Amino acid sequence: MRQQERLRRPASRCYLCGATQDLTRDHAPPANLFPEPRPTNLLTVRCCTNCNQSYSLDDEAMRVWLSAAENRSASGERIWREAVVGRSFKRSPALRASFAQSAVQVLVEKKGIQSPAVAITIPKERADHYLVRIVKGLLTDLYPEIDYSHCAFTVEQLTPSAENIEMLFKRFRYDERGEGVFRFFHQVVSDPPMVFLVVVFYDWACFLVRH
């Protein structure tokens, strides 16, 4: 049934706005999250040029925020050092200044000891918009029979504890792209109809997105 529905679903339309003209390809999640050499199995979906180009600044800003955490994975550390500090901040002093202004003091726990640290922030609305876009791309690939064009999505940040991750492996389907870059868990329930996706970036930033 899934294959029949996949064939009936209009494939040549933008997964964000539904446009059928001037189509290109968009990565879900964005390819800029992955250090070189990038995986060969990145997910791509049809996207119009207008939508694709309109998100480039969000993609860069979210890469900065997601890779800045001290507890990021080794891949996150590479992205921070090579792509963010090595290229983005050098190319755009304004980008670096904006994140410097967003910095706040936090407590970070390492080996059971809490110590002060500096963390950069990003507006929740901007982060949510980015995350919902990624989830729409995943839904287009994983569940092409679902029409989400009129759905409202909610985003909740989770703590990626060992207990939470173990629960997700037991109850959800799992996939990943890149080593320590992007992991995702997904599940569909029928009563009431709802899709759950949990996405994890650089082994620290974990979000539940549902509609």
Question: Which structural traits does this protein have?
Answer:
211 residues, alpha+beta, two-stranded antiparallel ribbon, disordered N terminus
Report on this model:
- There is one protein chain.
- The protein is an alpha+beta fold.
- The protein has a domain at 73-119.
- It is built from seven helices and nine strands.
- The strands form three sheets. The protein has a five-stranded antiparallel beta sheet with strand order 5-9-8-7-6, with helices on both faces.
- Strand 3 (104-110) and strand 4 (113-119) form a beta hairpin.
- The protein starts with a helix and ends with a strand.
- Mean pLDDT is 89; it is low at 1-9.
Question: What is the share of helical residues?
Answer: 25-40%
Number of strand segments: 9
Q: N-to-C SSE series? A: HEEHHHHEEHEHEEEE
Computed structural class: alpha+beta
Question: What is the mean predicted local confidence, pLDDT?
Answer: 89
* Rg computed from alpha carbons, rounded to a whole number of angstroms: 18 Å
Strands in their spatial order, largest beta sheet: 5-9-8-7-6
- Unreliably modeled segments: 1-9
Distance between the termini: 23 Å
Tertiary shape? globular
- Largest sheet, strands/sense/barrel: 5 strands, antiparallel
Strand content: 25-35%
Total helical elements:
7
Offer a concise description of the structure.
This protein has helices at 2-8, 49-54, 56-67, 74-91, 93-101, 124-142, 162-171; strands at 23-27, 44-48, 104-110, 113-119, 154-158, 173-177, 182-190, 193-201, 205-210.
